[in-house]
């Protein structure tokens, strides 16, 4: 029998029971829509996380002191990273583009009546390019200001807001730990939140931070930027070897520092968001499966109702396979149409979710394809049994069926 | 030269399980049908005439014995092959018409052609409907047709693949006597044109109009004349 004829016949019988067919595919519509919406939520979260990480600078590495521990209990960080370490990394490790020492601590900031607590980060000039910091108003400090231990500060937008500072206050003095600093620039917002909000910072020259504000001679971390296209793990390995030598760590003993690289961070984050996506998609897929059961139910009813029709068709020459095809195509049409409508529903749903302030959504073509083929698969899987039952019916019994 | 033999059964038997017991529906039926015959199969209900009809129509297979149709012993064929034989060599006419609902007359008639995989089914179906005198009702659905018209559509459908035999099971059972008479008249016309027809019926009036009557009882042919 011609394929087109079968499709026409199937459409006709589906349209003969419009409400019933619609209710049966509703399950598929909801299922496919849910899968697409959930995957878009996962993809949106992943993109968001990766964007934030890459906004920190792409080929950046960070060296932090190791954790001091007693029998597994962490008791604080080593204070073993020095300016000389930073200098030597820049001089001796190949593929390192620039290095910035980072000395930081929390301090009270004051501007006229208003005050706030902020993270004070003392860095070198190169830190700006390493972390992709953009100055929106004013300027970053320069080499000579670092060398001369100048009291200048660049502020993140959130800290500035807390102090009621706008671009008009650039050039004025603020107090950090009661010491006057000249405000020379405001950073562009990066967006984010949490305990390491990149917008809630105050950046000063590392020399000033170490000598004037914090009074320390060790560093919190050293940020390293590798040249474009450098093998990050090689650079990481070289830095590790250099620091082990400088810190005189015996063969086989643990490092007293950690080197974090951006690639690892991205990988961890994207693995996490992948798990998140699988979880959301998996839950949605269950609803698609339930939709499939709805189709199966309707197909079983249809087969019973049309027992006589099956008998007639067999009597005039339909083979078992013809009957199988006919019913299978009916359930495929249902799941396919449900899938198509579901795609529209899913895209709409994810747009609506994405409109809210809390979630970012991203509908990927792959997730549409996945959801649609899954729905068609559900149609075949749940349509097969009813169709097989129809195909195997005995024509004589069917012809006598009332 | 002897008349052309269309089908031959040789000692066919069929046993049905009924609850805990068994019923000998057919108990050694041997039958020969030649081209151009018009045969009535009669008998009380339970005599085995329906079972014989099902087997002759290749809807069922005998438990033992042989059944030759178109040169094949169809008693041993696979069910796909039987479906093909039903499509090519047999035309069914049922008591309750058995047209597919929601399909027009011509769509119903086209169906056997579609299962045969033939093109221009519309033209052939049109010709079959013309033969039964319904060329002006081709786009009507069964519910829009009278009983007699429905049976005519069913006969057109049975004829459309030019079958070797036409098998009719109580074809007038759901019709008033005048319409029934017309339908038997149509069968007679078809028979005159050379069509071989077997009618299962319990009406003596119809049996009388057939050239040959086979009476059945307890799964056996009681008499054949």
Explain how this protein is built:
- The complex is a heterodimer of chains A (402) and B (225).
- The radius of gyration of chain A is 33 Å and the shape is elongated.
- Helices cover 56% and strands 19% of the residues of chain A.
- With 402 residues, chain A is an alpha+beta fold.
- Chain A has helices at residues 3-16, 18-55, 83-92, 127-130, 143-147, 157-162, 206-214, 232-246, 262-305, 307-315, 320-355, 365-392, 395-400; strands at 60-65, 67-70, 73-77, 96-111, 114-123, 135-138, 152-155, 173-176, 179-187, 201-205, 221-226, 257-261.
- The relative contact order of chain A is 0.20.
- Chain B has 225 residues and is α/β, with parallel strands linked by helices.
- Helices cover 34% and strands 30% of the residues of chain B.
- A six-stranded mixed beta sheet of chain B has the order 6-7-8-3-9-10, with helices on both faces. In chain B, strands 2-1-4-5 form a four-stranded antiparallel beta sheet, covered by helices on one side.
- In chain B, helix 6 links the parallel strand 7 and strand 8 (196-200).
- In chain B, helix 3 crosses helix 4 and helix 4 packs across helix 5 (147-159).
- The longest helix of chain B has 16 residues, at 177-192.
- The radius of gyration of chain B is 17 Å and the shape is globular.
- The model of chain B has no long low-confidence stretch (mean pLDDT 91).
- The chains are: A alpha+beta (402), B alpha/beta (225).
- At the A-B interface, helix 1, helix 10, helix 11 and helix 13 of A face helix 2 and helix 3 of B.
């Amino acid at each position: 029998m011609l394929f087109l004829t079968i499709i026409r016949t199937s459409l006709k019988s589906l349209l003969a029971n419009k409400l019933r067919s619609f209710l049966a595919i509703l399950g598929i519509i909801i299922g496919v829509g849910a899968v697409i919406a959930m995957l878009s939520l996962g993809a949106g979260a992943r993109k968001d996380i990766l964007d934030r990480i890459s906004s920190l600078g792409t080929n950046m590495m960070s060296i932090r002191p190791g954790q001091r521990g007693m029998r597994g209990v962490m008791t604080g960080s080593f204070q073993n990273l020095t300016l000389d370490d930073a200098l030597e990394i820049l001089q001796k490790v190949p593929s390192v583009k620039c290095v910035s020492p980072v000395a930081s601590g929390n301090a009270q900031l004051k501007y006229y009546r208003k005050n706030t607590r902020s993270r004070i980060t003392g860095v070198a000039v190169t830190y700006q390019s390493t972390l992709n910091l953009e100055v929106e108003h004013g300027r970053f400090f320069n080499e000579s200001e670092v060398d001369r231990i100048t009291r200048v500060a660049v502020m993140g937008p959130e800290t500035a807001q807390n102090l009621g500072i706008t671009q008009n206050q650039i050039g004025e003095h603020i107090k950090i730990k009661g010491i006057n600093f000249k405000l020379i620039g405001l950073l562009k917002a990066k967006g984010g939140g949490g305990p390491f909000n990149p917008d809630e910072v105050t950046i000063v020259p590392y020399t000033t931070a170490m000598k004037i504000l914090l009074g320390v001679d060790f560093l919190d971390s050293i940020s390293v930027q590798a040249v474009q296209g450098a093998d990050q793990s090689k650079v990481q390995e070289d830095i590790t070897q250099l620091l082990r030598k400088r810190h005189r760590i015996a063969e086989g003993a643990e490092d007293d520092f950690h080197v974090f690289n951006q690639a690892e961070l991205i990988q961890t984050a994207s693995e996490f968001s992948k798990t998140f996506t699988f979880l959301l998609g998996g839950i949605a897929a269950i609803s698609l499966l339930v939709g499939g059961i709805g189709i199966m139910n309707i197909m079983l009813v249809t087969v019973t109702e049309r027992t006589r029709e099956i008998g007639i068709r067999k009597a005039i020459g339909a083979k078992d396979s013809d009957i199988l095809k006919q019913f299978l195509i009916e359930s495929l049409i249902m799941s396919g149409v449900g899938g198509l409508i579901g795609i529209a529903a899913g895209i709409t749903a994810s747009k609506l979710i994405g409109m809210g302030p809390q979630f970012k959504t991203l509908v990927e073509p792959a997730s549409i394809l996945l959801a649609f083929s899954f729905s068609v698969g559900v149609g075949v899987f749940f349509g097969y049994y009813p169709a097989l039952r129809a195909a195997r019916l005995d024509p004589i019994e069917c012809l006598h069926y009332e | 030269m002897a008349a052309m033999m269309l089908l031959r059964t040789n000692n066919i038997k069929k046993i049905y399980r009924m609850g805990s017991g068994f019923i000998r529906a057919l108990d050694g039926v041997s039958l020969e049908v030649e081209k151009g015959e018009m045969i009535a199969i009669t008998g009380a209900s339970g005599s085995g005439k329906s079972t014989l009809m099902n087997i002759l129509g290749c809807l069922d297979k005998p438990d033992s014995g042989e059944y030759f149709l178109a040169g094949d012993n169809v008693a041993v064929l696979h069910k796909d092959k039987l479906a093909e034989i039903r499509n090519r060599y047999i035309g069914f006419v049922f008591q309750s018409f058995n047209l597919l609902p929601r399909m027009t007359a011509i769509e119903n008639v086209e169906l056997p052609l579609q299962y045969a995989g033939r093109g221009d089914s519309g033209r052939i179906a049109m010709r079959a409907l013309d033969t039964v005198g319904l060329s002006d009702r081709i786009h009507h659905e069964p519910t829009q047709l009278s009983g007699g018209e429905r049976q005519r559509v069913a006969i057109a459908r049975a004829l459309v693949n030019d079958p070797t035999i036409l098998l009719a099971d109580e074809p007038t059972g759901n019709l008033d006597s005048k319409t029934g008479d017309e339908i038997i008249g149509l069968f007679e016309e078809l028979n005159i044109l050379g069509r071989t027809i077997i009618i299962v019926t319990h009406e003596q009036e119809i049996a009388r109009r057939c050239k040959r009557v086979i009476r059945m009882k307890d799964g056996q042919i009681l008499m054949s004349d």
